[in-house]
């Protein structure tokens, strides 16, 4: 038995980074997790075939050391990294990505989060332990942007329910391995000392949950946590005078929006949900879009730490961004509604084509600054065009369930975009709609439009970069024309960390980038204990080894072996459209 205090001393000597968080996880299952926090977890736990460079987002090796493609762009050959191991000591071979990708092609549950990437594929084979061959039916523009966590075949091949939660500790290949988790309390992860890029410089991360950002900021000031993101502008500005805290902000890759339910339908085209049927009228939706002022949201809600709304792809990815600013013209909106026959009643509220007053619901996330504050403006803007709006601020889980099942009129939402635009573009396709019971899909605005579908297929198959950029911009024009969503703008993530304890982190991109919620793990992997006087970022993580930090959320589960099949215990899925990746 250890002497009193020995265990505590050993723990104190560990280099542990403590990160704050205010949102829960939807799932620790990499096949179905879609939230920002859940995606952070998968990127840190599971290596992908390729990842995005910290400096400028260009594809760099991950599990694949190298790759080549045939002249017709229909066959891609990846050489899997030799000598890499899973955290349980098993070797990583081409059988692991072959299993992962084939499962996504053949199982709807496995395709829940990232199924769009394997559309149009013909086969995935592993001719030898270090070779993976993917054949596609037509050229695919996303083959070096496969945002798919590769899972260990020997763990997952006997799983009978691919929506279930895996047990802890997770078996992974990334820089950190998740060990323990308790919902709304903590997440504990340890450094993967055998990580192929080199072990992180820290031993572990304690990820601490807080009920709100105010409590999180206070914890940072008190030294109870070391790192946080998503501050509101007033908090960010207030921390500028704290000598122990360093602030960071950069161009956001997130678009924020208000969804307008156009008549939600399932994958088979059957109506679902309880959206107001008047919103099926595109003229009404366009009038609502014209009545919302992005500049006011940027100035009054985000305190200027944001960019006004234009295209669906955020300006942080300028090549694909459609720069046409969203119009604010309530006078034109009123003229449109008058012309469309939406007469105003004595109370100033318009009536729809059936004579019912236009009274709509606005769903939002309780306690979220954007939702709470912007809803007050939106209520008044819609009142100015004769539409009564009732804000309904509810839990993250209720928002997530409602927006997936079509049970809303208007809803505040948003997504983080990727350097390659395919994933967020796929959210607007017919294939991403849920099943008949409003589950099993990742829809955004329930758009199912033939022109958009045609353009989506074209951009996916277009390997000429310039031509693909033009197609993607046309798609953003279509989205604006259909008015199933109204963009609010693109907020800049506001981050803070204890500079008296940590060296500067690697940001992505290196010029004006962010630390947390990256397209990869560079910010976390670069964590270096110890005060520094340098104002520069840490060395680019791709060229440096032995650095790290991790951030993630998971849920526990029980493993039961039944007739040779591994069954994972279920965890109720939680999440929020506001937190979607």
Automatic annotation (TrEMBL):
It is found in: Cell envelope. InterPro entries: Peptide/Ni-bd, SBP_5, SBP_5_dom. Residues 59-428 form the Solute-binding protein family domain. It comes from the Bacteria. Coiled coil: none annotated. Keywords: Membrane, Signal, Transmembrane, Transmembrane helix, Transport. The chain crosses the membrane at residues 549-571. Its main location: other. Belongs to the bacterial solute-binding protein 5 family. This is ABC transporter substrate-binding protein.
């Amino acid at each position: 038995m250890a002497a009193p205090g020995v265990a505590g001393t050993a723990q104190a000597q560990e280099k542990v980074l403590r990160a704050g968080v205010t949102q829960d996880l939807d799932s620790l299952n990499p096949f179905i997790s879609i939230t920002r926090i859940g995606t952070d977890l998968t990127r840190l736990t599971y290596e992908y075939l390729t990842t995005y460079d910290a400096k400028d987002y260009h594809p760099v090796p991950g599990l694949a050391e190298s790759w080549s493609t045939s002249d017709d762009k229909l066959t891609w050959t990846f050489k899997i990294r030799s000598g890499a191991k899973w955290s349980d000591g098993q070797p990583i071979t081409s059988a692991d990505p072959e299993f992962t990708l084939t499962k996504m092609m053949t199982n709807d549950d496995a395709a829940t989060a990232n199924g769009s990437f394997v559309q149009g594929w013909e086969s995935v084979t592993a001719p030898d332990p270090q070779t993976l061959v993917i054949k596609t039916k037509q050229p695919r523009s996303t083959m070096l942007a496969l945002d798919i966590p590769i899972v260990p075949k020997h763990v997952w091949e006997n799983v009978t329910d691919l929506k279930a939660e895996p047990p802890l500790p997770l078996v992974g290949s990334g820089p950190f391995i998740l060990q323990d988790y308790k919902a709304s309390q903590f997440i504990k992860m340890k450094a993967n000392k055998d990580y192929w890029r080199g072990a992180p410089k820290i031993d572990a991360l304690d990820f601490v949950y807080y009920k709100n950002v105010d409590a999180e900021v206070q914890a940072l000031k008190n030294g109870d946590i070391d790192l946080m993101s998503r501050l509101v502008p007033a908090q960010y500005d207030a921390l500028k005078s704290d000598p122990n805290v360093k602030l960071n902000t950069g161009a956001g890759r997130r678009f924020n929006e208000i969804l307008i339910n156009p008549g939600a339908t399932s994958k088979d085209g059957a109506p679902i949900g309880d959206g107001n049927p008047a919103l099926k009228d595109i003229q009404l939706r366009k009038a609502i879009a014209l009545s919302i002022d992005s500049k006011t949201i940027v100035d009054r809600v985000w305190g200027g730490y944001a960019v006004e709304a234009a295209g669906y792809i955020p300006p942080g990815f300028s090549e694909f961004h459609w720069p046409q600013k969203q119009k604010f013209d309530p006078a034109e909106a009123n003229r449109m509604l008058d012309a469309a026959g939406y007469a105003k009643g004595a109370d100033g509220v318009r009536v729809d084509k059936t004579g019912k007053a236009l009274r709509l619901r606005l769903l939002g996330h309780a306690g979220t600054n954007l939702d709470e504050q912007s809803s007050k403006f939106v209520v008044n803007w819609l009142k100015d065009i004769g539409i009564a709006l009732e804000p309904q601020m509810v839990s993250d889980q209720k928002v997530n369930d409602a927006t997936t099942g079509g049970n809303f009129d208007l809803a505040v939402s948003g997504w983080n975009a990727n350097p390659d635009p395919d994933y967020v573009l796929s959210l607007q396709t017919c294939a991403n709609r849920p099943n008949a019971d409003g589950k099993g899909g990742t829809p955004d605005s329930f758009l199912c439009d033939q022109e958009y579908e045609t353009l989506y297929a074209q951009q996916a198959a277009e390997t000429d970069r310039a031509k693909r950029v033009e197609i993607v911009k046309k798609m953003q024009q279509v989205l604006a024309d259909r008015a199933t969503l109204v963009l609010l703008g693109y907020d800049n993530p506001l981050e803070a960390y204890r500079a008296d304890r940590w060296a500067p982190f690697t940001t992505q991109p290196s010029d004006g980038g962010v630390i947390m919620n990256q397209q990869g793990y560079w910010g976390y992997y670069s964590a270096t204990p110890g005060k520094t006087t340098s104002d520069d970022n840490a060395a680019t993580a791709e060229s440096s080894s032995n650095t790290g930090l991790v951030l993630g959320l998971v849920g526990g589960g029980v493993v039961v072996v039944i007739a040779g099949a591994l069954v994972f215990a279920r965890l109720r899925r939680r999440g929020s459209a506001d937190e979607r990746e």
